[in-house]
Amino acid sequence: MFSYSVDDEIELAIPRPAFDAPALFKLLEADRSVLSRYLPWVNQTKTAADEEQALRLFNTHLGTGQSLNLVVMVAGEVAGMISFNDFAANQSADVGYWLGAAFRGRNVMHRAVAGLCELGFSEYGLNKIIIRAAIDNAASNAVARKAGFHLDGTLRDGEPLADGFHDENEWSLLKREWVSGD
């Protein structure tokens, strides 16, 4: 497995579609009603084969430089995913993430975000990393805050979710802030 060690507990790994899909799908199934509220794609993932197909696509995108999708591993166990959804020409990228219910409340995701930021700034030449979260998604906003992101503002009706458009907060972290620790 090709992975990046965030700390002694968390690794970010390139997906192994046939191996990781069943575990990821199991996490989605166990928490579908919660995850689908803010992640519309969850409702289109109906089987482990759907998840495997998505992981194969993610790996294709990695190969073409479109995105970076990684499996979050906690103590060797599949816990969720984190990604740079696309790399923009202005040396920025936006982050997406989700975590299985059993792994929440353990400071996993903000540490995974910090690891992804390290990769983005040091390996991908990014200058700005962005997190967008529906304003009512308290957990996601807390991850951005705890990972040291700056709240840039709120975009009206910026996020289309299953129940309609939601205002979304846009958070950012600049390379100079990451390096200096500001």
From TrEMBL:
InterPro entries: Acyl_CoA_acyltransferase (IPR016181), GNAT_dom (IPR000182), Ribosomal_N-acetyltransferase (IPR051908). Residues 25-176 form the N-acetyltransferase domain. Its EC number is 2.3.-.-. Keywords: Acyltransferase, Transferase. Pfam families: Acetyltransf_3. The keyword Acyltransferase applies. Transmembrane segments: none annotated. It is an enzyme of class 2 (transferase). Gene3D superfamilies: 3.40.630.30. GO terms for molecular function: acyltransferase activity. This is GNAT family N-acetyltransferase.
